[in-house]
Amino acid sequence: MTLEIDSLAKRYGTAVALHDVSFDVRPGEIFGFVGSNGAGKTTTMRIALGVLAADAGEVRLGGRPVDLDVRATIGYMPEERGLYPKMKIGEQLSYLAELHGVRRADARCAAARWAERLGIGSRLASTVDALSLGNQQRVQLAAALVHDPAVLVLDEPFSGLDPVAVDVMSEVLREKARAGVPVLFSSHQLDLVQRLCDRVGIIVAGRMRTVGTVGEVRGTGGVRLEVHAPAAPPGWADGLPGVRVVEAGGGRTTLLLEDRTDDQDVLAAALATGPVHGFTRRTPSLTDLYREVVS
């Protein structure tokens, strides 16, 4: 089933939280939802879950508007802790599965299975507040998975995790996607988004700025040149047509080229200043592009 976010709008008084936000997450796809704090990611996710009401627009799952029954098929992981701190982990996971309609015996089995899968199987008898923040995050993910959801919506699931836990959680998301589950998650760890996601959407001040595959989004950043010309004076590339200086210092200059700009003209200008020790074309990383989009 495809999760469709269709033309969502949300205001708080005169403040625009969302303006005509649209994208979809397809079966078997991992979609990275990227934006700065306050850009609208959490608001979008809460509307998708029915926690907030949109002023306009609609959220659909498999073509069906998200109502109470549909919400029960979604696995949601909030950014802030949504667990009972004094309740034992095994009991809590079983209880949450039962709330989604899972039979008690099946709920207990699912709780044990996901706790083991996420590396907290030995802590089922512990209370949440006895765990480290990273292990609490693992419990939070288990709570989103324990009822075998049809779609996953995860708000900053990698926050506070060590590298081993990041690898475990990444593989779980890949596993669910391989099973045909649409996976939507937000994160500020853009290197992880670039590595893990099939598509990505960047939201800025409540408006979707770009949506596409990671390759497509990175391609919108144009061609970059990294030039190492140690004898070049400051500003040597400022007047070159079709060229914008992105970063400069220590004899190294990063340039952004317009589509029809010949990089050989740039090389000639660099050589005119002295020796050139490095001249490299590269596609901007998602982090590079994100900095440009939100600035």
In short:
The protein is an alpha/beta fold and 295 residues long. The chain has helices at residues 41-49, 68-71, 89-99, 104-117, 133-145, 163-178, 190-196, 214-219, 263-271, 286-294, and strands spanning 3-12, 15-25, 30-34, 56-61, 64-65, 74-77, 151-155, 183-186, 199-204, 207-213, 223-228, 243-249, 252-257, 278-282. The protein has a 6-stranded mixed sheet with strand order 6-7-8-3-9-10, sandwiched between helices.
Report on the architecture of this protein.
The chain has 295 residues and is α/β, with parallel strands linked by helices. It folds into two domains: 3-217, Rossmann fold (3-Layer(aba) Sandwich); 221-294, Alpha-Beta Plaits (2-Layer Sandwich), CATH 3.30.70. Helix content is 33%, strand content 28%. It is built from ten helices and 14 strands. The strands form three sheets. A six-stranded mixed β-sheet has the order 6-7-8-3-9-10, with helices on both faces. A four-stranded antiparallel β-sheet has the order 2-1-4-5, covered by helices on one side. Strands 12-13-11-14 form a four-stranded antiparallel β-sheet, with helices on one face. The mean pLDDT is 91.
Task: Identify the notable features of this structure and list them briefly.
295 residues, 14 strands, 33% helix, alpha/beta, elongated, Alpha-Beta Plaits, Rossmann fold, single chain, 28% strand, 2 domains, six-stranded mixed sheet
